[in-house]
## 1
Amino acid sequence: MSYTRQDVIVSRDCPAVTVPYGSAVTIEKGCEATITQQLGGTYTVMVQGNLYRVEGVDGDAFGFEPTEAVKHMHDGPVTSQAVEDAAWSMLATCFDPEIPVDIVNLGLVYSCKVTELDHERYRVDVNMTLTAPGCGMGTMIADEARDKILSIHGVDEAKVDLVWDPPWSREMISEPARLQLGLM
């Protein structure tokens, strides 16, 4: 994980998503890009003054080893508590591309409920919000959270809903995250 800005030349055409609008685009080979954030298996890059989010599998376009999603395993039996703990851990690897703090510490995750489907098979339901209701990245962040939860051993179903009540406020940010963001 890195917060250090790094300038690179894009080595191949690379799929990306505009931040904060969430539109799919291609960053063209040869462009100068500044890596502004490498967190949670994704990159936030600036190209010609515009921000883009790039998945870890395309890290090679910026000179990094591509990263694949990892199946989250744990020792011992698959229990509801183990799945819930793993779900919170996975949610803490999801980041808003504009803020170097995970969605859990930003206070965006309101609930994470685990339901047993049958022996060692579970469903996880998450309610989360965004820092701003109009954020075009909301669906992408929710999809990333769902995909990461589905990577947990024993999870067969996952649903992540974006909710707007209660409205998010800066007071919901954890104390360590407020300190990191210079809000204290």
## 2
Amino acid sequence: MAEVNITEAYKAVDEMVDLRTTVEIVFSAICLLTLIIASVFGNIAVIIAVVVNRNLREAQASFLIVNLAVTDLINGLTVMVSSFCSMVADHWVFGDAMCSIVCAINYCLIITSMLTLCFISFDRYQAVLHPMKYPMWISRNKVCMAIAYSWIQGVVFSVVPVILQWIQYDYWEAVCAIQWQQEKKQAVYYVVTAFLLCFFLPGLALVVNYFLVVREVRRASRLIQPFNERLASRKSNYSQSSKVVNSLLVVVMAYFVCMTPFSVTKLIKVIVTDTSFVPGRINTLASLVGYCSSAVNPLVYGLLRKDFKSSYKLILKKILHPTLKVTTQNDTSF
């Protein structure tokens, strides 16, 4: 028997099933392809920047930034690419097994990213409020343990829907996802636990940490008088710390802005029985905006941090002139 194209099957169900138009497919595919390119090359640039820049390489927080870049890179190469192919074909093309794998990867990366952002906020809290004790409290081994924990928790929560077979391809989201309506009674326990441990508690800790950090940076800035030469060095250190904090704050805000529409539509699907309550095209838009979170971080670092900006310039020079040996003020060379 010939294989039935799922799109043709949809069309056979008369006018009852709404499908994307050709214009919508082309527009969505172009947007998604742009985000894939930006995510893949941007996050590769972040990883290389940390490797070639000695100051970045020696900073403990850079390991967490690299971990965040790795999650965004994997997202671009797996979830976003599979979504792009399905968007172009107008149906899922990789089979049921791959659907479950991609869904698990997607949820694992979302959870890992959230926990990594939380750990970054804790690192900044210790660095700004307890600078003398920071080297003792935040060691490389502890940072590596935090990174390992973020991945372990991500894997644990992402395999549950796969084991319980809750996953199907969502046509309008253009991604394999949990079908909450079909397994609502069982899923409610999973949703509550995952929400508390993977989002609410890390998010609360993140907000509290950055609130305390920003308050301390502002307090210290007011105390340091610009005309006092004895405090010039301390003022410079706090100025640099403030820039780092500001860049990370923008990263956090960008993550929440990008992921909020996706999260809200998911929450509505858990609460509301009617699957058509959220229009399909809103789900597509929410997915596209959510994917922006994987592409925006390298841009933020390049705009707000001189250390990353100088490393980006170095990488670009090396690409344009492979035989040229170039260095930066941060002793960056290769």
